[in-house]
Amino acid sequence: MPVRSDTAVLPGLKPLVLQALSAPEYAAGTASIDRLRLAPVPLVPELRLVMAEDAIVLWARLEAEAGHVLPPPFWASAWTGGQGLARYILDHPDTVAGCHVLDVASGSGLVAIAAAIAGAAGVTANDIDPYSIAAINANAHANGVELTLSSSDLLDGDVDGVDVVLAGDALYHPSVAARMLPFLARVVAKGARVLVGDPDRGHLAHDWLEWVATYEVPMSGAPEDAQLHLTSVLKPRRDKVDDRRGRATRTTASKGNAALEAMIEEATVDAYGGDEQLTGLFTMIEEHLAVPFTTTVLGVEVSVYKIDLTADSIVAVCARGCHRQRIDLLDLPLPTPAPDGTAWIDAYRHWAGR
Ligand SMILES: C[S@@+](CC[C@H](N)C(=O)[O-])C[C@H]1O[C@@H](n2cnc3c(N)ncnc32)[C@H](O)[C@@H]1O
């Protein structure tokens, strides 16, 4: 089936692995490329997605092909929150049937594909990662559905002409949640419906969202990961929307910003220009952050054993077995409880506008 696109997909960005994703034998599930496989989604086995056996190895491979740092390949996993939301939509097709649907932070396109199968009049899958757009394209073909693809960052604006907005595991990071929740509130204020799929990674707005359903998600992968995780589908409490918007704005404006800015001032006091400010922040993080610590990246446990400075960013050097991966500190998921010195990471993220 043809896949419509409102964006020039991957101009100049054709790594081998993504070219291969659109090959017919791959879409037919008869090929495995660089440990990417077309496999059934554990909670939604009627859908098949291109998924990585080992997302960390894939990430390193993609960066080597691209020759520069890339965001994590979120698109190569079926996230727990998205699995629950896709299951709910397929079991309750009336939530989207005949509607114009936006799947925001679509990743692999899992939720968008479920909405299309459930009978939506039209589905737009939106993700800012161009690799994700390529993967959604391949996954849509593999599942025989038609999607509109969008790589615009929609979170600071309003959306028009949409009846339902779906957000699967879109609250996975505090900086994304801080923009996603006000965006969803504006969507609801304009009269559209919102459904969120989330395993509660700590950024849910419990006062604003109410529970709809909970699922146990069988985890795939290594036997030691074969445990069941709970994930929920939630919807906004309509009476709380405006209240939440006001509170979210005030919180962002006041909470901790003065303290973070004082830390940035301390780190960059003698710095001229962005490069020297970055070096100043790196020095503080290196001095104060307690390493090693363990965290989970793309469902895989890694040990962060060192912080490093590159030409334009600060990176965490992670180890898993004999494999090493450098992850931009802006994207590194942090464990709970956070290691000592994490406040300097917060200061760096604030300085970087995250
Ligand atoms: C944790 S993944 C979830 C993917 C998918 N919904 C699922 O449940 O499997 C989050 C996705 O959000 C995307 N993302 C982050 N910021 C975004 C933004 N401002 N607009 C759209 N997508 C965004 C990332 O690229 C990533 O693919």
Describe the fold and architecture.
Helix content is 35%, strand content 25%. The protein has 354 residues and is of the alpha/beta class. The strands form 3 sheets. The chain has an 8-stranded mixed beta sheet, with helices on both faces. A 4-stranded antiparallel beta sheet has the order 11-12-13-14. A two-stranded antiparallel ribbon has the order 2-3. α4 packs parallel to α5 and α9 packs across α11. It binds S-adenosylmethionine (SAM).
The share of residues in helices is 25-40%
| CATH class annotation of the largest domain | Alpha Beta
Sketch the major β-sheet.
8 strands, mixed
CATH architecture identity of the largest domain: 3-Layer(aba) Sandwich
Q: Report the total helices.
A: 11
InterPro entries: Ribosomal_L11_MeTrfase_PrmA (IPR050078), SAM-dependent_MTases_sf (IPR029063)
Keywords: Methyltransferase, Transferase
GO molecular function: protein-lysine N-methyltransferase activity
Short recap of the structure:
By secondary structure, the chain is an alpha/beta fold. It is 35% helix and 25% strand. The protein folds into two domains: 4-250, 3-Layer(aba) Sandwich (Rossmann fold); 257-351, no CATH class.
Question: What is this structure's SSE topology?
Answer:
Layout: E1 4-5, H1 16-21, H2 24-27, E2 36-41, E3 44-52, H3 55-66, H4 80-91, E4 100-104, H5 110-117, E5 122-126, H6 130-143, E6 148-150, E7 164-168, H7 174-189, E8 193-198, E9 209-218, E10 228-236, H8 241-254, H9 257-267, H10 273-288, E11 293-297, E12 300-309, E13 314-320, E14 323-328, H11 342-351
Helix pairs in contact: 4-5, 7-8, 9-11, 10-11
This protein binds S-adenosylmethionine.
GO molecular function, one term: protein-lysine N-methyltransferase activity
GO biological process, one term: methylation
Keywords: Methyltransferase, Transferase
